[in-house]
Amino acid sequence: MASASYIHVTKRYPDGDLALHDVCLEVADRELMVIVGPSGCGKSTMLRVLAGLEPLTDGVIKIGDRVVNDVPTRNRDVSMVFQNYALYPHMSVFDNMSFGLRMQGFPAPAIEERVFRAANALGLGMLLGRKPHELSGGEQQRVALGRAIVKDPAVYIFDEPLSSVDAKLRAEMRVDLKRVQKGLGTTSLYVTHDQVEAMTLGDRIAVMKDGVLQQVGRPKEIYDHPANQFVAGFIGTPAMNFIPVTVRGRRAKAKAIELELPCPSGVDRAVLGIRPEALSLHPQPSLPTIEIKVDMAERIGGDQLVYGTAGDDAIVARVESSLSVSRGDRMRLGVDVRLVHLFDARDGQAYM
User: Whole-model pTM?
Assistant: First the structure.
């Protein structure tokens, strides 16, 4: 296996659109790096320039110690899995998984050994004689994954491979993919727009916006310590609450909350960030509080999401599902100051 490196990578299309801007990212050997962000942020382009499907405008791509900028796709030792399974409908599972190896001239015994090993790892051992139309969507996705695994490349690339399956199957496939990736010890880059998928799959996460890398870190690190307001709002379900605050001297104060926070010198506008789980229904006397007027409540499993307003600001709180909540109710919630964040209102950078 090998690492994968992006060194000051920029990609600009002929029409002037900037897909990637000065991206620096190191994916360690055997690491599963998830690249996440909204549609159009450049995450799929990250995979395409690594695979050689798109030329760079500037910068360097390395796989291991080898610069691959001018190396053709077929010689980069990269294997790809896409959202579209692209299985050959007239071929069996075995033939679909072995097709690439046959094209490369592998001997039959080596092909069988690789296909059987991958099929057993993916639970496809009993399905090798079937055609794609005889398989479920999840089984077809496993075949597409197996076709990549048998090539035993230096780096695996996954471009939203689970986005076309239903939620239950997606959760099952995440477990399978993580298990197989760890079992094989493969260096992998995985692109998704689903931040839940990113948080559960990745050893580390790279968050992107408008072609710019916003933050790289372990899932908990990014959740607990977002580098800026965009990351804070994108990672987490439901999203973080944002409340404009006034700054006087070096103190930031929120109008609707009995709360003041220290603020760096020179700051005149700031935004307070509060995750829904930082709001508690039975506040301790020592906690600052916020009163919200309830607009609606939504039960999800053992939790209940309460949507409301505090003054002019929208607020979402996560409370016990057993609580009876109605539109128009007023609720006073405690604010855990250990879980709040403060951002610069001008550029969104985090202060705390």
Answer: 0.88
Strand ranges in 142-258 using DSSP code E only, listed in sequence order: 155-159, 187-192, 204-209, 212-217, 241-248, 251-253
| Torsion region of 328: left, alpha or beta (phi above 0 gives left; psi -120 to 50 gives alpha) | left
CA distance linking residue 249 with residue 9, whole number of Å: 41
E strands, the chain, in order: 4-12, 18-27, 32-36, 58-63, 66-67, 78-82, 155-159, 187-192, 204-209, 212-217, 241-248, 251-253, 260-262, 269-274, 279-280, 289-300, 303-310, 313-320, 330-335, 340-344
Helix, strand, or coil (residue 280): strand
Alpha helices in 57-194 (DSSP H): 93-103, 108-121, 137-149, 167-184
DSSP single-letter state for residue 277: G
> Could you tell me the fold of the domain covering 240-344?
OB fold (Dihydrolipoamide Acetyltransferase, E2P) (2.40.50)
Residues (pLDDT < 70) of the chain are: 1, 164-165, 249-251, 256, 258, 283, 352
CATH architecture under which domain 4-233 falls: 3-Layer(aba) Sandwich (3.40)
Compute how many other C-beta atoms are within 10 angstroms of the C-beta atom of residue 352: 13
pLDDT one-digit tens code per residue, 262-284: 777 777 788 989 999 999 887 67
DSSP 264: -
Helices 108-121 + 167-184 axis angle, to 10? 130
pLDDT for the residue numbered 1 = 63
Listed by start position, the domains of the chain span 4-233, 240-344
Please provide the distance, in angstroms rounded to a whole number, between the alpha carbons at the two ends of the chain: 38
Q: How many CB atoms lie within 10 A of CB 72?
A: 8
Angle of CA points 46, 25, 174, to nearest 5° = 65
Three-class secondary structure of residue 21 per DSSP: strand
The total number of residues shown for the chain amounts to: 352
